[in-house]
Write a structure and sequence with these properties.
With about 350 residues, the chain is mainly α. It is about 45% helix and about 0% strand. It is built from 13 helices and two strands; from the N terminus they run H-H-H-H-H-H-H-H-E-H-E-H-H-H-H. A two-stranded antiparallel sheet has the order 1-2.
Length: about 350
Protein backbone atom coordinates (compact mmCIF):
# COMPACT_ATOMS: atom_id res chain seq x y z
CA UNK A 1 0.00 0.00 0.00
CA UNK A 2 2.94 2.38 0.62
CA UNK A 3 4.08 2.00 -2.95
CA UNK A 4 0.49 2.46 -4.14
CA UNK A 5 0.26 5.66 -2.09
CA UNK A 6 3.50 6.88 -3.66
CA UNK A 7 2.14 6.24 -7.14
CA UNK A 8 -1.07 8.07 -6.27
CA UNK A 9 0.87 11.08 -4.99
CA UNK A 10 3.04 11.12 -8.09
CA UNK A 11 0.01 10.94 -10.36
CA UNK A 12 -1.64 13.77 -8.50
CA UNK A 13 1.48 15.93 -8.80
CA UNK A 14 1.79 15.23 -12.52
CA UNK A 15 -1.88 16.00 -13.00
CA UNK A 16 -1.50 19.30 -11.21
CA UNK A 17 1.55 20.29 -13.26
CA UNK A 18 -0.11 19.25 -16.50
CA UNK A 19 -3.22 21.21 -15.66
CA UNK A 20 -1.24 24.35 -14.90
CA UNK A 21 0.77 24.05 -18.11
CA UNK A 22 -2.25 23.51 -20.31
CA UNK A 23 -4.51 26.18 -18.86
CA UNK A 24 -2.25 29.20 -19.09
CA UNK A 25 -4.67 32.09 -19.31
CA UNK A 26 -4.79 34.00 -22.59
CA UNK A 27 -5.13 37.65 -21.70
CA UNK A 28 -6.41 38.56 -25.14
CA UNK A 29 -9.39 37.19 -27.00
CA UNK A 30 -10.03 33.98 -25.07
CA UNK A 31 -10.07 34.64 -21.30
CA UNK A 32 -10.04 31.48 -19.21
CA UNK A 33 -12.91 31.97 -16.80
CA UNK A 34 -12.10 28.81 -14.87
CA UNK A 35 -8.84 30.22 -13.52
CA UNK A 36 -8.05 33.34 -11.47
CA UNK A 37 -6.18 36.17 -13.16
CA UNK A 38 -2.49 35.55 -13.62
CA UNK A 39 -0.56 37.05 -10.73
CA UNK A 40 2.17 39.58 -11.50
CA UNK A 41 5.63 38.00 -11.52
CA UNK A 42 7.83 38.35 -8.49
CA UNK A 43 10.93 40.56 -8.90
CA UNK A 44 13.55 38.62 -10.79
CA UNK A 45 11.16 35.74 -11.54
CA UNK A 46 10.50 36.52 -15.18
CA UNK A 47 11.11 34.03 -18.00
CA UNK A 48 14.69 33.44 -19.12
CA UNK A 49 15.83 35.50 -22.10
CA UNK A 50 14.96 34.06 -25.48
CA UNK A 51 17.68 32.52 -27.60
CA UNK A 52 17.24 33.28 -31.28
CA UNK A 53 19.18 31.37 -33.92
CA UNK A 54 19.56 31.35 -37.67
CA UNK A 55 17.99 28.15 -39.02
CA UNK A 56 15.85 27.61 -35.93
CA UNK A 57 13.32 25.59 -37.97
CA UNK A 58 15.83 23.47 -39.90
CA UNK A 59 14.83 20.30 -38.02
CA UNK A 60 11.19 21.01 -37.20
CA UNK A 61 9.99 22.75 -40.38
CA UNK A 62 12.81 23.05 -42.88
CA UNK A 63 10.56 24.67 -45.49
CA UNK A 64 9.46 27.50 -43.18
CA UNK A 65 11.49 30.36 -44.62
CA UNK A 66 10.90 29.24 -48.20
CA UNK A 67 7.14 29.20 -47.62
CA UNK A 68 7.16 32.72 -46.17
CA UNK A 69 9.38 33.95 -49.00
CA UNK A 70 6.97 32.60 -51.60
CA UNK A 71 4.06 34.51 -50.07
CA UNK A 72 6.11 37.72 -49.87
CA UNK A 73 7.33 37.42 -53.45
CA UNK A 74 3.81 36.94 -54.72
CA UNK A 75 2.59 40.04 -52.91
CA UNK A 76 5.56 42.31 -53.70
CA UNK A 77 5.60 41.37 -57.37
CA UNK A 78 1.95 42.43 -57.52
CA UNK A 79 2.47 45.61 -55.47
CA UNK A 80 5.88 46.80 -54.23
CA UNK A 81 4.11 48.94 -51.66
CA UNK A 82 3.22 45.78 -49.75
CA UNK A 83 6.93 45.19 -49.24
CA UNK A 84 7.25 48.55 -47.53
CA UNK A 85 4.18 47.68 -45.49
CA UNK A 86 5.77 44.43 -44.27
CA UNK A 87 8.92 46.23 -43.12
CA UNK A 88 6.77 48.77 -41.26
CA UNK A 89 4.67 45.96 -39.75
CA UNK A 90 7.84 44.43 -38.28
CA UNK A 91 8.91 47.78 -36.85
CA UNK A 92 5.52 48.51 -35.30
CA UNK A 93 5.30 45.02 -33.86
CA UNK A 94 8.73 45.09 -32.21
CA UNK A 95 8.37 48.54 -30.68
CA UNK A 96 5.20 47.63 -28.77
CA UNK A 97 5.66 44.72 -26.32
CA UNK A 98 8.57 43.40 -28.37
CA UNK A 99 8.58 41.22 -31.48
CA UNK A 100 5.65 39.02 -30.48
CA UNK A 101 3.07 39.41 -33.28
CA UNK A 102 0.79 41.44 -30.99
CA UNK A 103 0.27 43.78 -33.95
CA UNK A 104 -1.61 40.99 -35.76
CA UNK A 105 -4.32 40.36 -33.18
CA UNK A 106 -7.86 41.32 -34.20
CA UNK A 107 -10.43 42.92 -31.95
CA UNK A 108 -12.60 40.55 -29.90
CA UNK A 109 -15.31 40.91 -27.28
CA UNK A 110 -12.62 40.44 -24.63
CA UNK A 111 -10.42 43.14 -26.14
CA UNK A 112 -12.15 45.51 -28.59
CA UNK A 113 -9.09 47.76 -28.97
CA UNK A 114 -5.94 45.86 -30.02
CA UNK A 115 -2.76 47.51 -31.31
CA UNK A 116 -3.85 47.55 -34.94
CA UNK A 117 -6.63 49.96 -33.95
CA UNK A 118 -4.25 52.35 -32.19
CA UNK A 119 -3.97 55.81 -33.72
CA UNK A 120 -0.55 55.26 -35.39
CA UNK A 121 -1.73 51.97 -36.92
CA UNK A 122 -5.39 52.39 -37.77
CA UNK A 123 -5.95 52.00 -41.50
CA UNK A 124 -2.27 52.62 -42.17
CA UNK A 125 -0.71 49.16 -41.82
CA UNK A 126 -0.39 46.82 -44.78
CA UNK A 127 0.62 43.22 -45.25
CA UNK A 128 -1.71 41.35 -42.90
CA UNK A 129 -2.99 39.17 -45.74
CA UNK A 130 0.56 38.12 -46.63
CA UNK A 131 1.15 36.94 -43.09
CA UNK A 132 -2.17 35.07 -43.12
CA UNK A 133 -1.31 33.34 -46.39
CA UNK A 134 2.10 32.28 -45.13
CA UNK A 135 0.66 31.03 -41.83
CA UNK A 136 -2.02 28.98 -43.58
CA UNK A 137 0.60 27.32 -45.78
CA UNK A 138 2.87 26.67 -42.81
CA UNK A 139 0.10 25.11 -40.75
CA UNK A 140 -0.55 22.68 -43.60
CA UNK A 141 3.10 21.63 -43.66
CA UNK A 142 4.15 21.97 -40.02
CA UNK A 143 1.17 22.40 -37.74
CA UNK A 144 1.82 24.35 -34.57
CA UNK A 145 5.53 24.88 -35.19
CA UNK A 146 6.22 28.32 -36.72
CA UNK A 147 5.27 31.41 -34.74
CA UNK A 148 3.53 34.40 -36.23
CA UNK A 149 6.25 36.61 -34.75
CA UNK A 150 8.86 34.76 -36.80
CA UNK A 151 6.68 35.00 -39.91
CA UNK A 152 6.64 38.81 -39.56
CA UNK A 153 10.42 38.85 -39.12
CA UNK A 154 11.03 36.60 -42.14
CA UNK A 155 8.57 38.61 -44.24
CA UNK A 156 10.30 41.90 -43.37
CA UNK A 157 13.66 40.40 -44.27
CA UNK A 158 12.34 39.04 -47.57
CA UNK A 159 10.68 42.36 -48.41
CA UNK A 160 14.00 44.08 -47.75
CA UNK A 161 15.77 41.76 -50.16
CA UNK A 162 13.16 42.25 -52.88
CA UNK A 163 12.83 46.03 -52.56
CA UNK A 164 16.62 46.45 -52.55
CA UNK A 165 16.77 44.33 -55.70
CA UNK A 166 19.05 41.91 -53.90
CA UNK A 167 21.48 44.51 -52.59
CA UNK A 168 20.49 43.98 -48.95
CA UNK A 169 20.47 40.28 -48.04
CA UNK A 170 20.84 38.81 -44.60
CA UNK A 171 19.87 35.92 -42.32
CA UNK A 172 17.10 36.54 -39.81
CA UNK A 173 17.43 34.63 -36.53
CA UNK A 174 14.21 33.00 -35.32
CA UNK A 175 12.72 31.20 -32.36
CA UNK A 176 10.26 33.85 -31.17
CA UNK A 177 6.98 32.99 -29.48
CA UNK A 178 3.70 34.86 -29.94
CA UNK A 179 2.37 37.15 -27.23
CA UNK A 180 -1.04 37.11 -25.57
CA UNK A 181 -1.62 40.85 -25.12
CA UNK A 182 -2.35 43.63 -27.62
CA UNK A 183 -3.52 47.08 -26.51
CA UNK A 184 -4.20 50.12 -28.66
CA UNK A 185 -3.38 52.32 -25.67
CA UNK A 186 0.25 51.19 -25.83
CA UNK A 187 0.89 52.33 -29.40
CA UNK A 188 1.27 56.10 -28.97
CA UNK A 189 3.75 55.90 -26.07
CA UNK A 190 5.91 53.30 -27.83
CA UNK A 191 5.94 54.21 -31.52
CA UNK A 192 7.99 57.13 -32.87
CA UNK A 193 5.78 60.05 -33.81
CA UNK A 194 6.19 61.74 -37.21
CA UNK A 195 6.14 64.99 -35.24
CA UNK A 196 8.94 64.03 -32.83
CA UNK A 197 12.12 65.99 -32.34
CA UNK A 198 15.56 64.39 -32.19
CA UNK A 199 15.76 64.15 -28.39
CA UNK A 200 12.42 62.37 -28.20
CA UNK A 201 13.38 59.93 -30.93
CA UNK A 202 16.71 59.18 -29.33
CA UNK A 203 15.15 58.49 -25.94
CA UNK A 204 12.54 56.17 -27.45
CA UNK A 205 15.03 54.15 -29.47
CA UNK A 206 17.38 53.85 -26.51
CA UNK A 207 14.49 52.56 -24.40
CA UNK A 208 14.23 49.68 -26.89
CA UNK A 209 17.94 48.89 -26.67
CA UNK A 210 18.75 50.61 -29.97
CA UNK A 211 21.57 53.11 -30.36
CA UNK A 212 21.60 56.49 -32.07
CA UNK A 213 23.37 54.87 -35.01
CA UNK A 214 20.64 52.21 -35.17
CA UNK A 215 18.03 54.97 -35.19
CA UNK A 216 19.61 56.84 -38.10
CA UNK A 217 20.19 53.57 -39.96
CA UNK A 218 16.64 52.26 -39.55
CA UNK A 219 15.22 55.65 -40.56
CA UNK A 220 16.49 54.77 -44.01
CA UNK A 221 13.46 52.51 -44.39
CA UNK A 222 11.61 55.72 -45.26
CA UNK A 223 13.14 55.40 -48.69
CA UNK A 224 10.10 53.23 -49.45
CA UNK A 225 6.45 53.43 -48.50
CA UNK A 226 3.92 56.21 -48.20
CA UNK A 227 2.90 58.85 -45.68
CA UNK A 228 -0.45 60.44 -44.96
CA UNK A 229 -0.76 64.12 -45.72
CA UNK A 230 -1.91 64.61 -42.14
CA UNK A 231 1.46 63.36 -40.88
CA UNK A 232 3.31 66.35 -42.34
CA UNK A 233 0.54 68.94 -42.63
CA UNK A 234 2.26 71.03 -39.96
CA UNK A 235 5.19 71.59 -42.33
CA UNK A 236 2.93 73.11 -44.98
CA UNK A 237 2.94 75.81 -46.11
CA UNK A 238 6.69 76.09 -45.83
CA UNK A 239 8.05 78.24 -43.01
CA UNK A 240 11.13 79.93 -44.47
CA UNK A 241 12.40 80.88 -41.02
CA UNK A 242 12.57 77.26 -39.88
CA UNK A 243 16.10 75.84 -40.40
CA UNK A 244 14.55 72.41 -40.91
CA UNK A 245 11.93 73.63 -43.36
CA UNK A 246 11.01 71.49 -46.32
CA UNK A 247 12.55 72.33 -49.69
CA UNK A 248 10.36 74.96 -51.36
CA UNK A 249 9.79 72.96 -54.57
CA UNK A 250 8.74 69.84 -52.68
CA UNK A 251 6.55 71.86 -50.31
CA UNK A 252 4.71 73.47 -53.24
CA UNK A 253 4.19 70.11 -54.96
CA UNK A 254 2.90 68.46 -51.79
CA UNK A 255 0.55 71.34 -51.04
CA UNK A 256 -1.10 70.84 -54.43
CA UNK A 257 -1.28 67.06 -54.09
CA UNK A 258 -2.75 67.09 -50.61
CA UNK A 259 -5.28 69.80 -51.49
CA UNK A 260 -6.35 67.88 -54.59
CA UNK A 261 -7.82 65.12 -52.45
CA UNK A 262 -4.86 62.75 -52.31
CA UNK A 263 -4.45 61.47 -48.77
CA UNK A 264 -1.04 59.80 -49.18
CA UNK A 265 2.21 60.47 -51.01
CA UNK A 266 5.46 58.55 -51.50
CA UNK A 267 8.18 59.10 -48.91
CA UNK A 268 10.87 59.11 -51.59
CA UNK A 269 9.90 60.96 -54.75
CA UNK A 270 13.00 59.81 -56.67
CA UNK A 271 13.13 56.02 -56.15
CA UNK A 272 9.84 55.31 -54.36
CA UNK A 273 9.85 51.57 -55.00
CA UNK A 274 13.47 50.84 -54.14
CA UNK A 275 15.09 50.32 -50.75
CA UNK A 276 18.30 52.30 -51.16
CA UNK A 277 20.24 55.16 -49.59
CA UNK A 278 18.41 57.89 -51.53
CA UNK A 279 16.60 58.74 -48.30
CA UNK A 280 19.79 60.25 -46.87
CA UNK A 281 20.33 62.48 -49.88
CA UNK A 282 16.73 63.59 -49.50
CA UNK A 283 17.37 64.45 -45.84
CA UNK A 284 20.43 66.51 -46.80
CA UNK A 285 18.40 68.35 -49.46
CA UNK A 286 15.45 69.06 -47.17
CA UNK A 287 13.28 66.83 -49.32
CA UNK A 288 11.73 64.59 -46.69
CA UNK A 289 8.13 64.64 -45.54
CA UNK A 290 8.18 64.13 -41.80
CA UNK A 291 9.45 66.41 -39.08
CA UNK A 292 11.04 63.34 -37.47
CA UNK A 293 13.10 62.75 -40.63
CA UNK A 294 14.12 66.40 -40.95
CA UNK A 295 15.15 66.28 -37.28
CA UNK A 296 18.20 64.21 -38.22
CA UNK A 297 19.73 67.49 -39.43
CA UNK A 298 19.23 69.23 -36.09
CA UNK A 299 22.40 67.78 -34.59
CA UNK A 300 25.95 67.71 -35.93
CA UNK A 301 26.25 64.11 -34.72
CA UNK A 302 23.25 62.77 -36.63
CA UNK A 303 23.93 65.02 -39.63
CA UNK A 304 27.36 63.41 -39.95
CA UNK A 305 25.76 59.97 -39.92
CA UNK A 306 23.28 61.05 -42.60
CA UNK A 307 26.09 62.34 -44.81
CA UNK A 308 28.09 59.16 -44.32
CA UNK A 309 25.16 56.94 -45.36
CA UNK A 310 24.44 59.18 -48.35
CA UNK A 311 28.04 58.93 -49.62
CA UNK A 312 28.66 55.29 -48.73
CA UNK A 313 25.46 53.39 -49.54
CA UNK A 314 27.09 49.96 -49.20
CA UNK A 315 28.03 50.77 -45.61
CA UNK A 316 24.44 51.80 -44.88
CA UNK A 317 23.21 48.51 -46.40
CA UNK A 318 25.43 46.50 -44.06
CA UNK A 319 24.37 48.50 -41.04
CA UNK A 320 20.71 48.25 -42.02
CA UNK A 321 20.92 44.46 -42.04
CA UNK A 322 22.51 44.44 -38.57
CA UNK A 323 19.97 46.94 -37.20
CA UNK A 324 17.04 44.88 -38.50
CA UNK A 325 18.39 41.79 -36.74
CA UNK A 326 19.00 43.79 -33.56
CA UNK A 327 15.49 45.23 -33.65
CA UNK A 328 14.13 41.72 -34.15
CA UNK A 329 15.48 40.73 -30.73
CA UNK A 330 13.52 43.33 -28.74
CA UNK A 331 11.65 41.78 -25.79
CA UNK A 332 11.30 38.40 -27.46
CA UNK A 333 8.84 35.97 -25.84
CA UNK A 334 9.64 32.38 -24.91
CA UNK A 335 7.49 29.34 -24.18
CA UNK A 336 7.21 30.64 -20.62
CA UNK A 337 5.32 33.78 -21.60
CA UNK A 338 4.21 33.10 -25.16
CA UNK A 339 2.72 30.52 -27.49
CA UNK A 340 2.71 29.36 -31.11
CA UNK A 341 -0.62 30.66 -32.41
CA UNK A 342 -2.72 28.48 -34.65
CA UNK A 343 -4.15 31.61 -36.29
CA UNK A 344 -2.15 34.83 -36.31
CA UNK A 345 -5.19 37.03 -35.68
CA UNK A 346 -6.25 35.32 -32.45
CA UNK A 347 -4.55 33.82 -29.42
CA UNK A 348 -5.08 30.12 -28.92
CA UNK A 349 -8.16 29.15 -26.96
CA UNK A 350 -7.12 27.58 -23.65
CA UNK A 351 -7.59 23.84 -23.35
CA UNK A 352 -8.84 22.41 -20.08
CA UNK A 353 -7.79 18.83 -19.40
CA UNK A 354 -9.81 16.71 -17.03
CA UNK A 355 -7.51 14.40 -15.18
CA UNK A 356 -8.87 11.30 -13.50
CA UNK A 357 -6.64 9.91 -10.80
CA UNK A 358 -7.31 6.23 -10.33
CA UNK A 359 -6.99 4.61 -6.94
CA UNK A 360 -4.09 2.26 -6.36
CA UNK A 361 -6.50 -0.68 -6.19
CA UNK A 362 -8.16 -0.07 -9.56
Amino acid sequence: MASGGGKLAALALLALLGSVASTCEASYGHPNRLLPSRSPPLPGSGPPPAVLAVGHYNQTCYQAERIVRAAVKKAVYANRGIGAGLIRLFFHDCFVRGCDASILLDETDANPLPEKLGRPNYRSLRGFEVIDEAKTALERKCQGVVSCADIIAFAARDATVLLSNGAVQFDMPSGRFDGHVSLASETLPNLPSPFADLATLRTLFESKGLSLDDMVTLSGAHTVGIARCSSFAGRLPRNASDPLAMHSTLAGSLTKKCRSGSSTVDHDFKTPGDLDSQYYRNVLDGKVLLKSDAALMSSSETEAKVRFHAYYPWVWAGRFMAAMVKMGAIEVKTSADGEIRRQCRFVNAPTIERVYVLSADS
